[in-house]
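Lest this sound abstract, we let one protein speak, letters for residues, whole numbers for local backbone shapes, and leave readers to judge:
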Amino acid sequence: TVVGFSAALVSLGKSNRIDDALRLLELMKALSRDGVPNVKPDDGCYNSILSHLARSQGKNAAAQALRVVRRMKEDLGQISTASLNSAINTCSRTTEDSKIARRKALEIAFQFFQLGREGNCVDTVTFGLMIRVCIKLSDDDGARLKLVEPLFKMCAKNGL
């Protein structure tokens, strides 16, 4: 069942074995297409991977989350708010010292945010996480202000 597969996905996510987790999702989809009941991947399957990426501080965690989110969008047609927030949180936990790595994580966070806006699944947590990403990963105060101010205005405009 999905519950059993989800436990395996959690374990793979904890081990940062994202390629294996994505292969398991493919297997689940194939079994579902072949008529096996209760094995079609759902939002919880993808979020079980993303939630562990969000807690990790592994290298390339943001890029790994992007792969999972793209697969989720492709497979389910949408991204849930919980999954979106987990993916953005993954970016906020980037600890690499490299300016390039921080910049890449920041760009990925904005890709997530755009997907969330397109899918109408942003909430107050999403905005808070995006502001945290901008503050944490921006190189200087001027850049932070340029990134945070429009987010804050958008949040206020949406009544959040």
